[in-house]
Amino acid sequence: MSVTLDMPVTQKAVLDKASIRRVVVSSWIGNSIEFYDFLLYGLASALIFSKVFFPTVSPMVGILASFATFGVGFIARPLGGIFFGHMGDTLGRKITLLITLGGMGTATFLIGCLPSYDMIGIWAPVMLVILRFIQGFLVGGEWGGAMLMVVESVPANRRGLLGAIPQTGGFSGQLLATGIFALVMMLPDEQLFSWGWRIPFMLSVVLVLVGLYMRRRLDETPVFQEVRRREAQSKQAKKEESPVVKVLRTQWRSIVLIMLLRFAESVPFFMCTVFAVSYATGTLGIEKQTMLGVVMMTCVLAFPMHALFGALSDKVGRRPVYIFGALFAAAMAFPFFWLLESGSFVLMVLGYVLLINIAHNSINAVQPSFFTEMFGPKVRYSGASIGAQLGAIVAGGFTPFIAKGLTALDNNDWTLVASYVVIAALVAAYAAWRAPETSKRDLTKDPL
């Protein structure tokens, strides 16, 4: 049974169960596709691109250059957050998400079509960087909107749990990208580096069509509709300043908090899924297929862990869960590398479970509800997107590059990398301690 928008929309279910289920599933599918596209690039940068696009430099420089192009996408993300945040707060969540999804799929497909350095020289890496920038720009508007579609549509006492489900799209995308990459990695090197690596990128078109179909069936969120209804009824309606300008002027502290909060999530994740894969295969001599298998196990376990921590945040609050995850990440950084050095599949899986499935997943599950609840309805898309994507630059995009550079400074030793993870996690734990508890807020009203 549905209820009307005249009721407090964050206190009761404003949609019937079927509609809520459709919103959650469609956001999960869309998020999975977006992260499939984005994370596929991470795997390719660790295993393929140094030879295809940077073959004239040393292996170390080639890996650094490849990881640098991975980071370019993160530079573009805040710009996408600003552009699409404004669009989402003024024109609506739905139309914005259709644009980001379609554009992302197109950019990914074109990466799969790029000629190699041997074919066209320097123009090959130049075009790779341009397409990577476009990818990042579109992802910058995707995450905030996908999370808002859920958080603004579900009952207040289930925002943590139901908001955490689409967040597993990062792992669905990683699982899909890793699985397909594992298959193409079975090809002989000559075929792999000529055409095999292109297959996962080109398959993005099929996935995007599915996502667009799902999103076209959605309505705007009840919160967005309620705000528009109130504006229409207001006798003192007036033209307001841009949502981006307003949120930067009035809630810049929340944006800074989100940037710091992302350190405990992004640094361990990209260290494990991009840098550690390259380090294990290149320095420790572990088989590529073994590392891909470890990553896939981690992705499978992410689904129940997100549900667990999301539901827990509905009961005890967002801050306690976030602080726990950040401190656990700091504690597990060094044990992760000890277990990785063992070369044992079981022990490596254990290391990934501790750092990703417990530490990272507890943080990642809370972010959709925690970040979006910090802002008022008229600037929520802009605020959550800008904060998250600015944090992504500092905390995520250049983590593989920084980690590789730290090992180069320390004779290929991982100690400085683990220390970097500890510092990042402690910074986020402090930010979570300073952040307000948001789990009880009414999303139709501005925060006090």
TrEMBL record:
Bilayer-spanning residue ranges: 35-54, 60-83, 95-114, 120-140, 161-183, 195-214, 255-279, 291-309, 321-339, 345-363, 384-402, 414-433
Record-linked InterPro entries: MFS_dom, MFS_sugar_transport-like, MFS_trans_sf
Subcellular location: Cell membrane
Heme found in the keyword field: no
Keyword Cell membrane among UniProt keywords: yes
GO cellular component: plasma membrane
Domain Major facilitator superfamily (MFS) profile: 23-439
Membrane protein topology class: Multi-pass membrane protein
Main localization, broad class: membrane
Record Gene3D superfamilies: MFS general substrate transporter like domains
GO molecular function terms noted in the UniProt entry: transmembrane transporter activity
Keywords from the UniProt entry: Cell membrane, Membrane, Transmembrane, Transmembrane helix, Transport
PANTHER family: SHIKIMATE TRANSPORTER (PTHR43045:SF1)
Name the record gives this protein: MHS family MFS transporter
Annotated organism of origin: Silvania confinis
